[in-house]
Each structure stands twice: as structure tokens, then as C-alpha cells.
Amino acid sequence: MPCARSRAGGRGGDGCALQRLVDVTHHVARLLCADVVVRAGLRLKAEAVAGRARDLRREWWECVHEPLAEAERKGELAAGCPPHRSSAVVLAATTGIEVLPGRTPAGSPGSP
After folding, report:
1. Which of 22, 89, 98, 101 has the smallest set of CB atoms within 10 Å of its CB?
2. Count of CB atoms situated within 10 Å of the CB of 68
3. What's the rounded Cα separation, in Å, for the pair 104 and 4?
4. What is the DSSP code string of 46-75?
5. Could you tell me the CA-to-CA distances from 38 to 41, 67, 89, 108, 112 in Å, in that order?
6. Which domain of life is it from (predicted)?
């Protein structure tokens, strides 16, 4: 899946796999914070009937897992950090991001 290379507007194929993952994660976070249409789309997707729409969470998993698997092949991941476990951590940290904009308590980091 080309998402980590092309959609982040970052380093493309010349950077390390882990940096591409960081870049695409930052890009997604910026979109969620700045674009009400992106947030609405994710909300609608979450409420959609299973099997009738694209599986955005599965696509995000692929965007996360691909650079981690590449990093493992290149020896860029620490020993004992297989891609499936690393993917689980990134997914856990980022899937909740879709609900944060607009729900962050006033005065806390990230609040308007």
C-alpha cells in the first residue's frame, strides 16, 4: 500500500521506514485536527453498516504495518519488537485520535 510513501507529503521512498511511519501518522493527525470533513467521514464510517463501506481501520493498519515490516527486514526495529506488536501499539495510540478533536477539555494540550 503506497499510503506511507505518497500521502504524507514527506520523504517518499528515500527515507527510513520508521520515519515514513512517523510522517504519515503526523499527517493523519493534522488532517483530523484541521479538517471537519475528515472527522465527519471517519465518524460516518464508524457508524456505517459492516461490509457496505471501505474498511478504513484495516487500511490504516496496512499503512502502519507495511513500514514496520520493512523496518524489520532492514534491521531498523529493536530486538523483541516484531511488526505485529509494534503495529498494535501505534494503532492503539492513533485510533483514538479520531475522537480527540472537539472533545479535548479546555485548557489541556491540543485544545482550541
Report:
1. 89
2. 24
3. 27
4. HHSPTTSS--HHHHHHHHHHHHHHHHHHTT
5. 5, 23, 23, 23, 18
6. Bacteria
Tens of pLDDT, residue by residue over 17-41, are 989 999 988 998 888 889 888 878 7
**CA 74, CA 83: separation in Å to the nearest integer?**
12
Q: How far apart are CA 66 and CA 83, in angstroms?
A: 9
E-assigned strand segments in 1-112: none
> Rounded to whole angstroms, how far apart are CA atoms 24 and 26?
5
Q: Diameter of the chain by CA atoms?
A: 43
Report the distance separating Cα 49 and Cα 41, nearest Å: 14
Residue in 49, 59, 43 with CA at minimum distance from that of residue 98:
43
Bigger pLDDT: 8 vs 109: 109
Which letter does DSSP use for residue 98 in this model? G
Cell numbers found for residue 65 = 504495518
